[in-house]
Amino acid sequence: MSFIPHTKEDIATMLAEIGISDIEALYDEIPDEFKIGTLEGIPSAANEMEVVREITALAAKDKFGLNFIGAGAYEHFIPSVVWELTTRGEFYTAYTPYQAEASQGTLQLIYEYQSMMSNLMAHDISNASLYDGASSLAEAILMAIRVNRTKDSKKIIMPRNLHPSYKAVAESITTKQGVELIDIEFNPADGLINTQDLDSHSDATALVIQNPNFFGSLENVDGLTDWAHSQNIIVIAVVNPIAMALLKPPGIWGERGADIACGEGQPLGVPLSSGGPYYGFMTTRGEFSRQLPGRIVGKTLDSNGNEGFVLTLQAREQHIRRSKATSNICTNQGLMVTASTMYMSLYGEQGLVDVAKSCHSKLNEFITAIKNLKGIEVLFDSERFHEVAICMPKSSKKIIEYMESHGISPGLDLSLYFPELENTVLACVTEVKTTEDIQAYVSLLEEALEVIE
Amino acid sequence: MKEQLIFQQSKKGRRVNSLKLDIGDSFSISKDKLRETPLGFAEVSELQVVRHFTRLSQQNFSIDTNFYPLGSCTMKYNPRACNKLALNPDFLSRHPYRGETNSQGVLECLYNLQSILEVVTGMDQVSLTPMAGAQGELAGVAMILAYHKKRGETHRNEIIVPDGAHGTNPATAIMCGCKVIELPTDKNGNLDIALLKDAVGPNTAGIMLTNPSTLGTFEQGIGEISSIVHDAGGLMYYDGANLNAILGKVLPASMGFDVMHINLHKTFATPHGGGGPGSGAVAVNEKLKPFIPLPVVTKTDDKYRWANTDDFPDSIGKLSAFMGNVGVLLRAYVYARMLGGEGMTEVSNFSTLNANYLMKKLQKNGFKLAYPGRRASHEFAISLKEITKETGATAMDVAKALLDYGFHAPTTYFPLLIPECLLIEPTETESKETLDAFVDAMTDIKARFVSDIDGIKSSPNTLALTRLDDVKAVKELNVRFG
Lengths: 453, 482
Known about the structure:
A: four-stranded antiparallel beta sheet; globular; B: Aspartate Aminotransferase, domain 1; seven-stranded mixed beta sheet
């Protein structure tokens, strides 16, 4: 059931024009030894009606109740406008805007996105997006090495309270270029970066600071940034964009501000969708603009003097520079940026601050409700945004299984990534949760603690 | 009509009231950690947002509105059913860390897609995790290096790339810490085999090839190339950008390739979205299976589960925070289910028919083919070198003039080795009438090289904007409002 419009008559006319008698003749330059007759082992074609039924039934298997997992992917309310308009064919089925005059819609939208994202991060320039938060950190690390001319080392300080998958991805992508990723510990008491460990790494090229960190706690970003800059170390901020409506943005951390900010754009209007497609954002100060990876849109004039937009600084990119490019990146995540730009426009100046405040306030409500349960310990004495680590008196694995089998995901099992955090669950509460939802969590957890041995 | 920036439409104090929230009263963050500066976002109503972005969308060419024969990009119709089904709320609301028991639906889709891609590539294992073609390439080269390392041959760090290759190929090799050796193409569009023999050696890690190549022709010496590279101890990387040309006709594995990526946003009709998200699934043979990037989906006792490092201890690791672009993968799966094996063979048959028909007609109308003696694959290159010399009209001028006829431009100036190149890929979903109309437009433009060269040089003349100044954009860098 392919989407081919040709009639028999069309085919005959076209073959005659080419001067052959059947389509097979078009493959006469391919040695026979490489050709196959038919594809075996692929389920036979289904029409649209059958496919709708089949896929809808598969989706229904995943029908679920309440999600309290965050850990890098956050459930927020997405206004109807966002995906109604994002999936308009003119956005959905356009290519990368190389032909600027025929792509002003996408280009202006990206320019608006860059404006919003650089404002949100308090930086001068934003790129048009990267693949996801984790790979944006990998690209930020490579960029930090390019811009830090004062250091020969390729050492990057990676606190252990950074998202473990971000570390794993940075390892896959950067270590082949001789980059050395150095762990430093977090304080067991507050979950924050152990600053005493920093001094022995003053030869590093960059320091990565995630804020809020993976445990949801707020770092002392000013002190960390100033320490790094005093050692000529580039500061890479990994932040949650919704939190930045409420918290001090990277561009004004410490005396000089973080040098590069990156992270996961998903909270801004992109559904959870099993982890993707999301998008990574990246912003920086003006002096480093030519070292940013990925697409960048700039404003210019047309030949009549009218304002318009084009892809710019393309001399950094692989399709021009080939092996000398700043990255091998070709596509970005344009459609996700389209959704985010609409999301930020709809919430506007005050709305996004309110989303952030609502998340924070509901987390506090959740903590209050849960900390009275017997045996439950709220881990890490720190300020938080919208996530919290909870130590359970029984097997976290069993609690999660039990609660998920009853329709609530209680959080991520931290012991999978941090062996020292036994039976600890990282829970997240956003603006979408009601008091009743929080009560349902508490009741089910209570029940789980009773049932599980 | 020029649409103002959203910021220029802002009015202080205006809000989308229906999105107002109860912000609660429990606040516990100290002042020194809080933001003091405004966000600088627009303050607009919902209707303003809807009008603004609807109007912006109308300033785009897209597959849904225009013929889009962009060579090497496979701009085919993106079926709406794929989008609608992937947007099922039960799929969208699944958190990536939810347990496997409550995720069997999506896991089954991904597992089935892996299996289908294994069949069409002839490979033994697929990983769906790479988020774009370039990331698939990165995974592929990383696997090649991991394979050599496992065999104690860490010195193998040279990647051979033809001069017609996509820019991502050499850029990827560099990102993997390799040295790039570029090889020229002969006058018939094939890789120069004699030079390849000289280029391979004890340091060869592998070669990256697209076949049919970026020139729109089938690499006829592929069997010999494979022997030369393998005999030298190297591996064969297949850039799947042009898989649409041979889907269901030729298996990359049988041409001797060991590892490849598939651009699902090309061959499997997932949308390009104005520049992503793409998806660059990788497929490998038994040699490279141990090194596959994670996660992949596997099946034990009728239950689908994520394979992990216990299953693949030598994996090159993770490439995304979670599991790649699942929403894109679901669209590709729906597409594959609708096509079936037979539909896939039709894809290559009709994309090839359309390309050869269009090539023949353009040739008849006086356009010079880059490789006139060759069949087109699913795309072909024409060179305007002579026309440029005679009339001054360049490939860029033709590209811009086509916009006035309602056609998106073909790929221009790629491959770099063809002077004044237009790379044209019509895809299988276009009708004969559309192709004929495109030929008429090209023929008309060609006549205007003589009669209306100024009109051609100043095109586009019918869109909201005329030609934009790229140089000014770089010199007077302005990348944000305010």
